[in-house]
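Troubleshooting entry. Yesterday's outputs looked truncated, so today I'm pasting the complete records for two proteins to confirm everything comes through intact. If either block looks cut off, that's the bug. Protein one:
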Amino acid sequence: MNSRFRSGVILITAVLGLALAGCGGKATSDPKTPEDDVPTTRRAAAQAGIEPMDTVRLSYGLRGSEEDFRKCFMRSMESRGKVNVQFSVDDTGSVHGARVLMSSLGQAHVEQCLVDELLGLDFGQQPAPSINHFTFVFRLTDPLNEKKRSALLKKAARRTNESLKILPESAGTIDLNHVAEVVQAGYPLYAHCYRDSIQRRGESRGVVRFKLQLSESGAVSDLADEGSVMPDPFAVDCMAEAFYLMQFDAPSQAPTTLRYTMELE
């Protein structure tokens, strides 16, 4: 596998990008929905003995439908935000009960479109029924012209010593080696984001830099862009969705806030 890990920075080559696949997420709250509704529904599902689908299986089940989901967002191009949905999948792979838990879009027709697209998916035969959550992210970053992107890449190269760090405002802490290991193991969740970006733009060299907030359970409860520089903004959205699927160890105290940088070659 053509990849290297250095001080929290992941260097992914085109070979790796073509070899792996996946993508996923979580969202900010809309005024009508409490921020803690998602962990509450997860706890209720666990108590009922219904587990979520394996994240890689979930990612593969969503592959091939990305364009359909993006078309939903295209209905409101001025919008920017995230939509967290909950849905169940029975043992035949059919989707039921899809609903929006949290949204920062404020665009009901876009949210309904996402739900409708989910209800039309077929995940194939499953080992057991599951209750799942996924966050769709739209316009986390804006397109950059080539001149500006080149200048920002040079600037970003001087900041690689900040590739993985707990931020000063963080209430808690977490083992950074553990964070690095989880992200490395998450290659299948986001590598196809990179591959698809190459197919759309011809190349996808750049930097993805996220500010992550971890909840008391170790889930990513919030994510913001911290200066990503990519030729394809859809790739940044896709990778943000993947980070929302990752599960870390419980931090010492919540929320724990850190910055993570991936350098893509």
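Protein two, checking that the full record survives here as well:
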Amino acid sequence: MAEGKHVKRTIRILVKAFPQPSTKHEETVCCAGVDEETGELLRLFPIRYRRLDKADQFGRFDQVEMTVTKAPSDTRPESYRVDEGSIHVTDSYKQLDDATKVRLWASHISPSLKTLMDENQDTNRSLGIIKPDPGSLKFRIKEAAKSDKEDQEVADLLYEQVSLLEDPLKPLARPTHSFSYEYTCAGHPHKHQIHDWEVQAAFNHYKRRYNTEDEALKMMRQEYGQNIPQHNLHFIMGTMASHPRTFIVIGLLRSPLDPAEVVKQQSLF
């Protein structure tokens, strides 16, 4: 798509990254999704998610229509700016079976993170999906105040912003913990913090449900350390605009179905 050209696209959302403060846009969320017509994996921003009408606050695998423009200031080929007023949810994730969900993203799985990084050097590819080696995942939790520099960045993401045109949003709870995975991919060791909004939302849900932080952390270890890795866990990897060669985990994908088997079945028909 040429820069500056406005095009309506129909996207199945795969992930919402954790909200980031913005002096220009108040608070924005970067999303990734698959164009249902072209099959492209796209980065979509800036979206003031909490400013959207409730009916259009989309979730994972919801179908969303939106008008997008190739971002002229972002050299990453998958990056598109979204006309926020054009966002409309047109179909629910509830209409999709597990095989259809997997087929949406299976073609974007890279053989390894190293392969993805090599492609980033060669073609500027900045979005992809990888599978951790079976049995290699270790879920880690750190207190934000005691974390290293990278982990502290998440804890410092949110601060109160005031819009001059709208009532200010109630600030989201400041993250008290960071969550990460240590793993290998094609035998190479890696450690990545999870930037999926889901993980912080899950932690907050457990705190409300059990009324204690200790119990919430126990549930996080059980869910993300034991349960989720048993369901064909894959990572959506993306680079940052300010660090276009550095990949981070922006989302988690899992399914009761093995994507390799789904693709094999699809090739038979």
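Both blocks look complete. Sanity check on protein two: Residues 157-166 have pLDDT under 50 and may be disordered.
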